[in-house]
């Protein structure tokens, strides 16, 4: 991932000042939090909540005062909007609330990730278990990957949120919300005049990881591609500010590149399915031998693309006789 550690100032066409705070959420993993000088003062995202992440956030505020002469500190924040339910964006909300008393809001489809953190992790891991077995990963691999998937389980204490939202104007604010599911169920992009906070939905260099909707509803490539088109159609955006990496000057061009990237990967995936194959086999062909957590990410990314093709009839499961009688069989797909 491309990390930019510079604090940057933006001013919206309506005159609202925004600062990009590059918080080191995990070692060498920068999450951009945005301080928006609205009334009340708003912070978009809270990074991971790890000790070093919280220290990095405080350091960003100190640098902001030094470099820009802005008299603002974390306790001045009164509203925290979380762009989506991933730990590198919401994990720091306890810290932000302790420091500032800010009210926390998140999209209604990600609210329970904060409120029922452990339950969501356990239940989605169960779906992941079924997915990996069907993908043909093998018992030993499945056990290893399931263990890996729980890496975040001790990083967060569940807590309630103060408000939720879906789409449209956020009441008492100048922010307009666009639901952009796919990378995460409750992912939102937030418009402020001619600025779009594009969160992890659109990033300047990479496309965010995809996973099959079979595991968690409202993820999946179908939702993601539709939401890319939706965001591309928002008029009058001068700059998009992502949850990682750099500012995006041409949102439409970046969206087109993201769509083209997935179209190419879909085509490549389909061509790897001329003979009956499993998700695990296609994943190895697409990504080669991966290590550690990247093995899981490769299976999920492949699974999302194969699910997209299957749902649209470009792939079919060809070992139906076996599927008919075995409880959770390995599925073999073939191009149609
Ligand atoms: Zn994310
Ligand atoms: Zn992220």
State the helical fraction.
25-40%
CATH top-level class of the largest domain = Alpha Beta
* Biggest beta-sheet profile: 7 strands, mixed
Bound molecules: zinc ion
Number of helices: 11
Instruction: Give the mean pLDDT.
Output: 97
Computed structural class: alpha/beta
Characterization of this structure:
- Helices cover 39% and strands 19% of the residues.
- The strands form 3 sheets. Strands 1-2-3-4-5-6-7 form a 7-stranded mixed β-sheet. The chain has a 6-stranded mixed β-sheet with strand order 8-9-10-11-12-13, with no helix packed on it. Strands 14-15 form a two-stranded antiparallel sheet.
- The protein has 11 helices and 15 strands.
- 43% of the residues are buried.
- The model has no long low-confidence stretch (mean pLDDT 97).
- Strand 8 (168-169) and strand 9 form a beta hairpin.
- The radius of gyration is 21 Å and the shape is globular.
- It is of the alpha/beta class.
- It has helices at 51-68, 87-90, 93-100, 111-115, 117-134, 139-149, 221-232, 251-271, 279-287, 293-311, 320-325; strands at 8-11, 17-26, 29-36, 42-44, 79-82, 103-107, 163-165, 168-169, 176-179, 188-192, 195-199, 239-242, 247-248, 315-317, 333-335.
- It binds zinc ion (2 copies).
- One zinc ion (ZN) binds at residues 31, 86, 88-89, 200, 243-244.
Question: What is the element layout, followed by pairings?
Answer:
Elements: E1 8-11, E2 17-26, E3 29-36, E4 42-44, H1 51-68, E5 79-82, H2 87-90, H3 93-100, E6 103-107, H4 111-115, H5 117-134, H6 139-149, E7 163-165, E8 168-169, E9 176-179, E10 188-192, E11 195-199, H7 221-232, E12 239-242, E13 247-248, H8 251-271, H9 279-287, H10 293-311, E14 315-317, H11 320-325, E15 333-335
Parallel strand pairs: 4-5, 5-6, 6-7, 11-12
Antiparallel strand pairs: 1-2, 2-3, 3-4, 8-9, 9-10, 10-11, 12-13, 14-15
One zinc ion (ZN) is lined by residues 84, 86, 183-184, 200, 208.
């Amino acid at each position: 991932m491309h990390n930019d550690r510079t604090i940057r100032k933006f001013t919206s066409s309506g005159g609202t000042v925004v600062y990009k705070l590059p918080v080191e959420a995990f070692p060498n993993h920068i999450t951009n939090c945005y301080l928006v000088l609205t009334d009340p003062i708003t912070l978009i995202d809270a990074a991971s909540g790890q000790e070093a992440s919280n220290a990095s956030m405080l350091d960003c505020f100190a640098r902001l005062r030094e470099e820009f002469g802005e008299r603002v500190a974390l306790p001045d924040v009164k509203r925290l909007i979380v762009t989506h339910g991933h730990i590198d964006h919401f994990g720091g909300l306890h810290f932000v609330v302790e420091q500032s008393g800010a009210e926390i809001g998140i999209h209604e489809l990600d609210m329970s990730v904060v409120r029922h953190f452990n339950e969501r992790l356990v239940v989605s891991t169960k779906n992941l278990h079924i997915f990996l077995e069907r993908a043909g990963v093998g018992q030993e691999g499945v056990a290893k990957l399931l263990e890996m998937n729980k890496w975040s389980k001790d990083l967060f204490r569940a807590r309630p949120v103060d408000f939720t939202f879906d789409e449209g104007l956020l009441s008492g604010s100048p922010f307009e919300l666009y639901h952009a599911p796919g990378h995460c169920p409750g992912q939102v992009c937030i418009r402020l005049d001619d600025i779009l906070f594009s969160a992890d939905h659109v990033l300047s260099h990479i496309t965010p990881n995809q996973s099959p909707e079979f595991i968690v509803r409202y993820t999946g490539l179908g939702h993601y591609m539709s939401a890319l088109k939706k965001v591309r159609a928002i008029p009058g955006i001068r700059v998009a500010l992502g949850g990682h990496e750099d500012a995006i000057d041409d949102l439409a061009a970046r969206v087109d590149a993201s769509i083209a990237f997935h179209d190419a990967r879909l085509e490549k995936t389909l061509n790897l399915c001329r003979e009956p194959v499993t998700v695990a086999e296609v994943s190895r062909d697409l990504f080669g031998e991966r290590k550690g957590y990247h093995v899981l990410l490769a299976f999920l990314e492949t699974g999302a693309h194969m699910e997209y093709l299957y749902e649209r009839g470009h792939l079919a499961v060809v070992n139906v006789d076996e599927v008919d009688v075995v409880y959770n069989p390995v599925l073999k797909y073939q191009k149609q």
